[in-house]
Amino acid sequence: MDDIKLSGINWNLTEDSNFLATTATRLAQSLSADHVLIGELGTDGHTCSTLAYVVSGEPVDNIVYDLKDTPCADVYCGEVCLINGDVQQQYPKDALLVDLGVTSYTGVPLIDSEGKVVGILSALFANSLPLGSEENIRALFMMAAELIASHLEHIKKRQQLLLADTIIETIGEGIALCDRNRHIILTNPAFSRITGYSADELIGKHTSILRSDYHSEEFYEDIWHTSAREGRWSGEVWGVNKKGDLFPAWQTNNPIKSSQGSIEYYAILISDISERKAAEQKIRFQANYDPVTQLPNRHLLLSRLNDAIQMSKRHLKHCAVLFLDLDMFKTINDSLGHQAGDQLLQLVAKRLTEGLRESDTVARLGGDEFTIIVNDMESAQDAEVIADKLLQQLAQPFQLDHHPVTITGSIGIAAYPQDGDNPDKLLSYADQAMYNAKNRGKNCFSFFTATMQQQAERRLVLKHQLEEAIAAKDIGVAYQPIINIENGQIEKFEALARWQHQGKFISPVEFIPVAEEFGMIPRIGEIILEKSCELLRQLQRAGFTNLQFAINRSAKEFPRSGEAEPNWLDVLEDHQLPASAICFEVTESILAPDNLDQKRYFNKLKNAGAQIAIDDFGTGYSSLSYLRKFPVDILKIDRSFIAEFTNREDDLTLVSTIIAMARSLNLKVVAEGVEDQEQLNKLMELGCNYAQGFYFSKPIEAEQVLPYLQKWAEQLNVAVG
Ligand code: C2E
Ligand code: MG
Ligand code: MG
């Protein structure tokens, strides 16, 4: 055997193997033995393999022989055998004795430090032993056996060490030894391979060199405390390698104690489990995602839908599942090939995902079917805006490797709670609704619920018509006077949006919510403000310089955080109107506490001199604390309270309370919907500041405003005069 480097020590094994041959030779010579052999039991348990064999005083090749019926077999059982002269008679079945012409035999077991027989030492003689030499031979043999046994044990230990060292050097697990202060003393190549640090870079360093932020300080402390207390810790640990990257490992920490029982070292074993983790990840991905588009598959979709339903239940919200099927996908797939088909699916997946919020889920169920979960909606109606947007986005051409392709989709919508709370059922309802959309001519969406569908269709028709009207600035304004009850003067007009489609009047009660839903309200707001400013300027030029116009503003016209502010003040400036000429009417919903962003813009309007009125007061939150927090000037009592307040006690109480409250907050009050003299008298009595309603006038056309004002002034003069 060659020299082997083991734990830094050079062992010359060539010399060692000579020891046995030399000892056997010397024994043979000193005893004049014809054969001397040192043997060990073969792995089969019934043969002996010689480690050294000397014949006629010279070492020869090793042999293997069967132990059965030989004196060596008895020696193996622990006996010392010394047979002088008649060995063949005592072991008549041992043919080897006959073959070799042996008459005398000496054999002693080789016993290791634990008392175990590890081999034999024997000598064979052709002649009888000299008389009286037996005791000397026995003593010599016993001594030699002890020497050989200890030598063999030594060799065995060294071989075991060598083996252990080879294992440590070649094993896939990383091994490190550290002292009780957790400083690294020794590492193996696998430890370096896993951590990226060479042994030199690690030795002397604290084990915390491998710590990552993935785990807490407590987690790491627990590893050491548990291993010290329980003798072992093992678990999954994310470490950080030399490059700074996280790596997953299965780690075992074993304390090594001194003979007194105190911990001297820790052995740390780490196995690289990144491949297993990657495989797990892959399995998880395959179980939950579609390989073509990387979108969630049906399995993950249903689980997410279930989560969305539970979430909506908890927060009293709505959620919807949109089932989208591409129209004519098969034709594209067949004409351009599957590869192009896959590419198109990927582009569709990308476009759908980009068009939605991160909290929404886009999934692919297979083929050309996609599903979208829309969360956190105030009503199922919100889903129609999303469906409409998705269809428009989808209709934009796709560029497939030099082929521009246009495709449309059909969408079915089912929503929680009105269509149920079972994910499977909702999905199947959405699927059915999708077929309705296909039947209606494709490239459209359809609700599962019939009434929802009818309303949605009506809204969608309105939306298209309204878009055209807005583009043509075909949105009109009617003005309704607001009278100062104390002096009878017309001090304000409320501007009200008017729209006629093909000669048919459509109420703002119907079209304003549609405009809000589809994001068209800011454009309507612009038109109303622009037209109102033009009229107001004309009226000023005609001498009515103290008039104020009340302009309705929807909550959706106020900027959310991060959005650009509207340019209402600039519009006023362009018309050379002071901001005080306008009062913006908003409903109480805008005062909700989560609308604090808008408060900033309110203050800006207010600081410029514009007024703020709370419209339809009494129908919403009506919270005094909100009123204090927002810069409000006017409360408009909703006309539903005025309608009956002269003969309904509860309405009277409400109206008088609002007036008293407003006075204490230094706010003015406008009563809406005043239709008769009795209501006006009562309001006057309660100290209401302004009145608006059919009793004075219905909303009138722009051209009628100046004549109306002139006539009013005349009559007032007559009345006063
Ligand atoms: P509003 O701001 O409370 O407007 C008052 C509504 O009451 C108007 O209905 C008006 O015609 C009606 N009205 C006035 N006096 C009487 C009366 O004595 N009796 C009865 N029964 N009704 C009376 P209109 O014009 O149909 O507007 C309805 C709602 O549409 C408005 O309620 C407002 O919330 C919204 N709206 C109208 N124009 C606009 C606009 O330009 N922008 C926004 N965001 N909303 C608008
Ligand atoms: Mg109003
Ligand atoms: Mg109102």
Could you give a quick summary of the protein structure above?
The protein has 721 residues and is an alpha+beta fold.
CATH class of the largest domain: Alpha Beta
Uncertain segments: 1-15
Structural class: alpha+beta
Task: Report mean pLDDT, rounded to a whole number.
Answer: 90
What's the CATH superfamily of the largest domain, by name? EAL domain
Tell me the strand percentage band: 25-35%
Describe it.
The protein is an alpha+beta fold and about 725 residues long. It has 4 domains: about 5-165, GAF domain (Beta-Lactamase, 2-Layer Sandwich), CATH 3.30.450; about 170-275, Beta-Lactamase (2-Layer Sandwich); about 290-450, Reverse transcriptase/Diguanylate cyclase domain (Alpha-Beta Plaits); about 460-720, TIM Barrel (Alpha-Beta Barrel). It contains 24 helices and 30 strands. The strands form 6 sheets. It has an 8-stranded mixed beta barrel, surrounded by 5 helices. Residues about 1-15 have low confidence and may be disordered. Bound molecules: ligand C2E and magnesium ion (MG) (2 copies).
Q: What brief labels describe this structure?
A:
7-stranded antiparallel beta sheet, single chain, 4 domains, 721 residues, elongated, binds magnesium ion, binds ligand C2E, Beta-Lactamase, Alpha-Beta Plaits, alpha+beta, disordered N terminus
